[in-house]
Design goal:
mainly alpha; single chain; 39% helix; two-stranded antiparallel ribbon; two-stranded antiparallel sheet; 153 residues
Length: 153
């Protein structure tokens, strides 16, 4: 990629040496990693779309089973797993809170008080995407470890 391309706009030049060897005059380019955080509205929209795809897949699978078809299956959420992984990484959630909320708690619909706790034992409300977002942001800002579910997750 040419260093004149748009990709390099705003990327600072840094002196670079390879394996400790001196390479005078060799220039490489480095882009600092800047955390990308979604707004609450953006986050909830992504979760809502995942939920709609998950629900649609479940409805189609139910219709197929009702018709006696064991081999008809639709996978509308094949990107759901990777997407929840990206969201967990974006919010530094080592406990995979987004994945847990979506797939174990059925997008908060199966949340029960006491089912999710902070490492200090405090109950955490994962009943809605909004509350999940607030929790993720708070713990990113605090630098604390993310929640642990009571079932060892």
């Amino acid at each position: 990629m040419s260093k004149n391309s748009k990709f390099w706009d705003g990327v600072p030049e840094v002196e670079h040496s390879v394996s400790g060897a001196e390479s005078p005059g060799y220039t490489s380019y480095k882009k600092e990693v800047i955390p990308m955080i979604l707004t609450k509205e953006e986050f909830c929209k992504v979760i809502d779309q995942l939920q709609k795809a998950w629900d649609a897949e479940s409805q189609i699978d139910k219709i197929a089973r009702d018709m006696g078809s064991d081999f008809l299956s639709v996978d509308l959420t094949y990107l759901g797993g990777p997407l929840t992984t990206v969201l967990d990484k974006m919010f530094n959630s080592e406990s995979e809170d987004v994945c847990y909320f979506c797939y174990e708690l059925n997008f908060g619909r199966e949340y029960e008080p006491g089912s999710v706790k902070d490492p200090d034992g405090t109950d955490v409300d994962f009943s809605t995407a909004e509350k999940l977002y607030d929790y993720l942001i708070k713990h990113m800002e605090d630098g604390e470890q993310q929640s642990e579910s009571t079932d060892g997750k």
